[in-house]
Design a protein that fits this description.
Distance between the termini: 26 Å
Largest sheet: 5 strands, mixed
Helix content: 10-25%
Shape: globular
Strand content: 35-45%
Order of helices and strands: EHEHEEEHEEEEE
Mean pLDDT: 96
Low-confidence stretches: none
Number of strands: 10
Radius of gyration: 14 Å
Structural class: alpha/beta
Amino acid sequence: MRILVVSDSHGNDAALRRALLSQPKAEVVIHLGDGEEELQRARGSFPEKTFLQVKGNCDWGSSLPPAGEYTVDGVKIFYTHGHLYGVKSGLYTLVCAARERKAQVALFGHTHHALEEYDDGLYLLNPGSLNSWEPSYGTVDITPQGIVTNVVKLRES
């Protein structure tokens, strides 16, 4: 199964739509915050996809949760925007939270800088920002052979 991971779209409907269209095989879309409104607008155009999202520090007045968990094919994914875990200063608190939840994958945004790391059984992925000078998103593939994370630069249409 492929999961599309996006973050920090900050009102950029066009970039979010391009990311969604570029990954037609993604069955699940996880938005990591700072883009609640544009994700709500995009949902109607992609009824075949499952959408999950958390609120970011710029999703003012949002009733979305600050973090979530999703399990698929026995793989637990912990996802959050990242600001409540201090990800701009380091990943220790985020990693501890993911391990506490027995997650194999931790997804976060907030920094606008894409990152892929593997830390002793835990895959870490920050897809970067859809609304930056070099927009990017991430994918997580869960297969019988294992987990693969990837950061993808968003191309102009």
